[in-house]
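Question (not urgent): is this output format expected?
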Amino acid sequence: MAVGGAIVNRIRKRVPPGQAPPEHWLDYASDKYSKSFLHDIKQILPVLKLFLPLPIFWTLFDQKGSRWTLQANKMDGRVTETFYWKPDQVQIFNPVLILILVPIFETIIFPTLERLGIKFRLLARMVVGMLLAGGAFVIAGIIQMQLDNTLPIPPPKMTAELRVFNTLPCPVNVTLFNGSMDLPENMKSIEIMEMAEFPVKGFHGFIPGNRSTFQLRVMAATADCQLSAEQESSIFRNVTLGEEQIHSLFLSPFQGKLGTKMVLEKKEKPKKGAGFVRFVVPFRLNTTSGGGHLVLINTDIAPNKIGNRYDLNVNRGAALDLGVTVAEQSVVAEQGKYEIYVSDDTSVNGYRRVGRERFEVPNGGVYTLILRGNIHADTPWTRHDIVAPSSLSVFWQLPQYFVITLAEVLFSVSGLAFAYSQSPASMKAVLQAGWLMTTAFGKI
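Got this back:
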């Protein structure tokens, strides 16, 4: 109120009766407030001016709860074989380091500097703290550059990607034709439950922004392999590809013929620290309809918690309508190890476990998991990585958290002490409020 009254009186040129024009603009409020009160305000104003750049520090500091958490989403949170750190849990580094570093600085580092005759004043500590905050983001930038090197590269213009998965009971040779011209990497041998990748680039007849049709030749790789009831050794199928798109083509037997199913994939890392898994079931489940449910259970996570259970519908009827025996379903699952169960009418609880081992979903990848018919084997599945999982450990963020915590110890603790020491007794609460205002503006 005193500041506001002084400003109004200064604008109106109002001088208290019997007084000469004041030397300080706050003296324009001397008709309503005591000189001691105005003197105290004059003392804290220079300190408040020093507070003006402080929100910049808090703006940087609070990035650990946003940008740094997003960075952790793209990192591997594995701690042990059964424990995984979630991206938003990494922030625990800061309070733990605070509890460790504050006593060390107050009882060891600062007293040692004083004994050595080095004057590390409060303002100097704040300056060093702000410089360290900048250094923390230099470290974060280096980590981000390493992460960017692991990001998948989507197909550029005039190209496409095709992955052919073999769910047939025998190995095959696959060739992709563009009219009468073979592509450079035109022939691949695919074992049972394996895949071949065709990077289709710069091919003739591909119209930008459009889709083009190619011929896929599937040949039996062994003499006892029958691709159809007519015992054909070579079968052609048309394959339509889109520019800058990723395609997965599943080969499967269907009523004595070769069936194919095309699925579009996304070549990007999943968000929120998870893995994208496409489950492929190329066989009939032991149910009346042949379909049912596929259930994932992570026993390391408590029931009813996120990531404990995922229930997928295996719609075999929809697959048969498309002329294939391949049923597929996808899920974005939390990082961890899962038991896999499928519907089984002969089982007591209606489900039978697939394999004896647990299936691991690494963080940050896109996977295609093909189940085999022999579900009693240890690992009756084959996992193919469309996007490689995150390989950089989340613990590489520890240096930047350590530096930003050092900055907080020097800047925040010293800043609070400076604000308290520089204010008159009647203005300590005001200066403390000004300090808290810098924190509030930095968080906006």
